[in-house]
Structure formats: structure tokens, C-alpha cells
Amino acid sequence: MKIANRYVALAVVFAACTQVASAQTLLKRVGKVTGVTVNNQEVDIKTENAFIKVAVYSPNVIRVRMDKQQLAEDFSYAVIAKPQTTKVTVTQNDNEINLATDSLKVNVRKNPYAITFTTLAGEVINQDETGLSTSWVSENVTTYKHMQDGEHFIGLGEKTGPLDRRGNAYTNWNSDVFAYSAGQDPLYSTIPFYIGVHHNVQYGIFMDNTWQSDFNFGASNNRFSSFAAKGGEMNYYFMYSSHLADVIASYTWLTGRIKMPPLWSLGYQQNRYSYYPDTEVYRVANTLREKKIPADGITLDIHYMDKYKVFTWDKSRFPDPQGLTKKLKDMGFKVTLIVDPGVKEEKGYGVYDRGIAADIFAKYPDSTNYTGQVWPGWCNFPDFTNPKGREFWARELKAYAADGVSGIWNDMNEFSTWGQKAPDNIFFNYEGKGASHLQIHNVYGLEMIRSSYEGYRAALGGNKRPFVLTRSGFAGLQRFAAMWTGDNRAEDSHMMAGVRLMNSLGLSGVPYTGMDVGGFTGGASPQLYARWMQIGAFNPYMRNHTQINTKSSEPWAYGEEVLEITRNYINLRYKLLPYLYSSFYEAKENGKPVMRSLAIDYTHDENVYSGAYENQYMFGQAFLVLPFDSQTAIGRVYFPAGKWYDMYTGAVQQGNTKLSMELGMSKLPVYVKESSIIPMQSLIQTTAEKPTDTLTVHVYKGDINNKFVYYEDDGESYDYEKGDFYKRTITYDAAKKAITFGKAEGSAKSKFNNIKVVLHGFNATAIKLNGRQFKAADDFSALMTPISRFDPTGLSNPVEGENVKSLLIKNSDGQFAISY
Known about the structure:
Residues 1-23 form the signal peptide. This is Glycoside hydrolase family 31 protein. The chain has 820 residues and is an alpha+beta fold. Among the domains are: 27-255, Immunoglobulin-like (Sandwich); 674-819, Golgi alpha-mannosidase II (Immunoglobulin-like, Sandwich), CATH 2.60.40. It is 21% helix and 30% strand. The chain has twelve helices and 52 strands. It has a nine-stranded parallel beta sheet. A hairpin with a 3-residue loop joins strand 3 (42-47) and strand 4. The protein is globular and about 80 Å long. It starts with a helix and ends with a strand.
């Protein structure tokens, strides 16, 4: 019996060895370096099984490309930056190759190939996992990185789950996921860029590969993190900077940054699937104005179309589109229309006929057009990777511009079809190079929004900013569109997941984001709706939206108390438009998002990665927003280092502090960071209305220095690119006890003739303006109107605010300083 068992054991070992040998024939490692060629900033490396190019893109950005065959022609839909001329030192010996810039060092081990990135002092930032490095299994290529002790992984775009991705894995395959769960993956878009944080260093890795990809941050293993693609090259950019915000700046330098959005798009947007007919649209618009709820946009979903066919109107529901948009414009509203990529396969339908004539639809290998089913029925799909396809789309968009439409909402652009399984063998033009659906799927949405942005800008005359909203996209989407997080549910978990999704998108280069406030599917409770609208006021894009056959979700649909609460926060958003618009200018300049995970400014504070505090975020540089679901009565909060002012009362809270606070429906906890500078305006009902001519600048006393770049332009054209803007830097110097308004820049004149400076927390009795004594006024600052006393037996709600000092100053273009 023992002998028999021994034979069985030997058979098992032999079988296992056979399996390993078989696996080795499938798996191909990079292997040993066999040749090195140095060409200025590039090092070409030949190994036993791969061709590799290590290129210095800038002092702190290194690109690594590798494949099993000679590297193909370089092309990217995502990367628009060109390599900067950089001073690089390259040395090598029998064992290694070393590159050094003035920001970092790169070491390439030769036997076998492995790459390590270090600081100039030699601290390891990121390194290949010993023994694994990069390998292929069939056509799947994976790079394995050593997982550092205590390493956090953040970003990766539109991904659910915790802020810290460690212990989890994710797939990138753009998917239409109606009513997705709060932890579902993948969702609608792909941004294969993440940031690693450990031992007081931070870095970014962007894998520029459009095939289905997988990122593993220690899921089911304790050895490595990895990133992989189902085909194509291993092609990634490594970024290092001493501050996390600069890593984001490097990534957005590579993939592009937003242009200034149209000002109206930052106002409140009232949506529904769907508002029809036109009398219903007018009713909603009139009610918004009657109830004094500031708003700038109304969006029309698919029911405006004739049998859901793109670029058409249902004339029974909308008999006069131009009259509709004009009347709404006169009321201060802009119209945004949903536009899907599917073109109904119907002879006699002009859009289809013109698409056939132009031969711009995606095809099967036998040259027949691919047909998939969506809202209008069986459809063909424009090939947006074909320049002719983009030209076709631009021509069709002209009809909407002629009808007075201001915004284009790109939906179903994953692309989505019934069955959600588009065949692998759909063929795309790919800029003349040709590619299958497997390679193009994740960039289809990106090229659609590119077509929509470029086409609608041209349709509007070239100098007027279009507003483009998208559900799907790829790295670089921020160049063309705002993004919202798709078909969420009216649930507390989705509200909080939406906060994390937007924070993650901000970490991933997308600053203009929103979610369906109130929830798309189902119906919110009054408490949930009130809380969601409060949080929505502190989103970059504030869009209220709900599904067909659900209860109405306008602010007045939840009762009088909820109406007052939501109006209070929308009012606050409109007063904050100068601050918000200036924050978008900052995003345009350096990629720093408007909605900011605390990991950006408090990168190495372990508390910000805790599940208890991961939802907290900064709105711009001043506001600390503490979001909670509608069911939580006592909330746990964390205040990072520094001093924090209660936005409502001015009460001061010291940082590095954890505490519990009582929560109520009428108020979202929001604090202001010390030394903050916040420009505000008078309340308006629409951005088409001019505020009063006084800009109020709130300054909060602190012990740290700060500066805020205040920015204005016309809010609708590209003239700012020619210098037609108004900008001044406001500086707070804690040591010198001075607030300096720098000299105005740009050729435009400010819309404000006066500046009212409001001083929070200053006890100074002697205030000087430009060195001369200035008598500051005693004032009272309150940002909210008290909620009505709905319970006759209860107590009246008091006004919340604080006593402050204020100075009213004539706004001149010259520099002036306030000392205290």
C-alpha cells in the first residue's frame, strides 16, 4: 500500500512538472538584456524575448515601451505632449544601465531585465518585482511591481470601492451598467492611471493601452501590484514629483487639460428622463423661476426625438424647437440635448442615408456595416476613429446649433447595444491603420466626445464654447467633456459612492464631474434628497436627474422644508460662482481638480485613507466638505492639520483632531481652511443675470501663507486665449500680517466696480490700506437663510453667522495691500 501511494505521489509530481513546463511554453519573460543603444534621451534595449525603449519625456516623466516584436509606429489618442529636451546622464556597465535627470534616477538591471525608479538620494520610488518584471501569456502582457510596505494606491478613474485601492483588482472595459451596484466594476469609462503613495514619496503610472486592461493592487496576493492588457504593447509612463498635485499636473500635461467651460454650465441643471412635451418643459422652467430656485439649464432626454432617431425632433411633442430654445434663453435657460451614437438603419432617414453615402460606419471584416440594436431599433454606428466619421458627425451637429441648442450630452457611447456584447470582429478605421473592436472599444467614447466637441464648436461658429457631457471615455477625456457617473440609484450608498467616484476622477485628471443628484433609479426619501442636493451644491457639475416612471425629483417635489433646504444650497452655489470659476481656471492651468480628495493636500496623513474619513474632500482650496448619508445621526469626522472655521458660524476647530458631531437634515457640515481667500457675488437666478457690482472677498485668519488666483472672462468665448481676461493674485502672508491684491492682468475689465473684503477671525483693531489707517466696519456674515419654523410648537430657527470686520474698496487695476 505504501509503495502504491509512492507511485501515486510520483505521478502527481510528474503531472505538476508537465503542467509547469507547458505553462512555460505559453509564458514568455523579457529575459536578459542582449543589446543597448543610447540615443540622446532614449535608450533602446534588446533582450532575449523583447524590444524595449526607455525614453525621458521630461525631468520627472519616464516612458517605458516594450513588445515581443519590433516596436510599432508610435500613436496615442490619449497623449498629446511631446518629449521635452531634457538633460539626461546615461551610463552602463555589464550589469546595469543608469539614467539620471535633475528629478529622479532610473536603474535597469540587465540579467534579467528589471527597472527601478529612485529619488536622487537613492530612495526607491517604484520597482519591478524581482523574478517577475514583465511577461506575456499568449498575447496578454503584464508588468509586476513590488508592493511597498504600507503602500496606498489611489485613482484609476471611475472606479467604485474605497479611496485606497490596496487589496483590490479592477478591469477596464467600458460598460453600460444600468442601476449598477455601489461596488460594481467595470463602469462606463477607462482611465488606466493610478498614483502610489508610500514612505513619503508618491508617483504615478499611466498605461497607455486601449485594450481591455486589469489592475491588481495586491488582490489575492501579498507580493505585487500589477497592470496588464489583453493585447498590444506594454506602454507606460512613470511620473514622480515631490507633491501629489504635481503628479496630477504631469499626467494632465501628458493627456491634456480642460478649457474654460461655459459659465452657464456651472449653474444648476434640471434634468429628467424625460421632459416632454414642450409645455412640460415650460412648466418646469416657470416653476424654477416662480419658486426662486436659481438654475441655468434644462436637459432633454431621448423623448425629444422622432422615434428616438438621432438628430431629429418629435414634431408632435416639440413643434417649434427654435421657439423653445429662444423662449428658454429669454428666461435665462440653456438647453442640452442627449445624443446617442446609434444611427437607425432606415432608408429615407436623412442621417442614415448621408452616413451610407459617406461610408463612415463601423464594419464587419466582409465590409458590411455592423448593426446593433438600441433605442430606435437596429442601428449602424459611426466610426469616430475615421476622420471621415468625425467630419460626418460635425456636419450633422449643425442642425442642433441652428435650433439654438447649447449643450450636447453624449450617452450610450461605451458603445452600448442591447445584449451588451458587441462582436470582437467589428472593424474600425483607426486613423487609416485598421483595428478591431477589442482595441477600439475603450476609446470609442473618447473619439465620440472629441467629434462632438470639435464639431459643435465649429457649428457654433468656432469662438463659442460648447458644453459637452459624456458617460464614457478614456484617458484624456477632460480635453473635450464633463463626465457624470451614469445610472445610479436613489440610495444612500450610491450618494456616497458618487462622492468617491468624483474624487477618484479628480485624482485621474478629470476635474469637471457630476452625478445624478437625487438618484436616477428609484425614488429618494425627503431626507436623502435634501442631503444629496446639499452635496451636489459642492460638486463641479450640479445635475438633478431621475428616470422615467419614477416620482418627480424637482426641489419642490419633496415638500416645503426640503425645498427651502435645497434652495439654500443652490443659492450658496450661485454666490460662490466667482470662487468656482476661478477654481476651474486653476484646473485649466495645472490640472488640479475642483473636487479634491484629501490625499492631494494631506498625502502622507494615514487618516485620510481610513474608511471612516475617505469620503471627506476639499471643494477647491478652501472648503472642507464632510458628506454623510441621510441615515447617520452622529458622524465621525477628521480635521487634518491646521485650523478650520465652521462655514456657518465661524467657530474654530483645531486640526489633527477626530471627533463626532451631531447631524441634521437642514445642514451639511462644511468647514473653511485657515488663510483661505473666497471671492463671492450677490445672489442671481441665472448666469445670464448680472450680479451687483461688488465682489465680496472673504479672508480667514490663519498661520499659514496662501494665495488665490482670482479669474474672470466673458464666460462664453475663447477670447481669453488671446489675453481677454481679468486676473489678479490675492496673497495672504501670515508672518507679515498682510493681504495683498496683486496688479490686475489681462485686457478685460472686471465686472465688479467695488471689492468688499470680509475678515473672519481677525481681532486687529488697527487696519491699514496701503499703509494708511483705514476704519473697518463692524459687520455680520451669514451664508444661509434660516429654515422656516414648520412645527408651530417648536423653537424658531436662529440666524447662523458671525461678527466680522469688512472694508469696502474701489476696485482698481493697481496693487493694493491690507495690513492688520
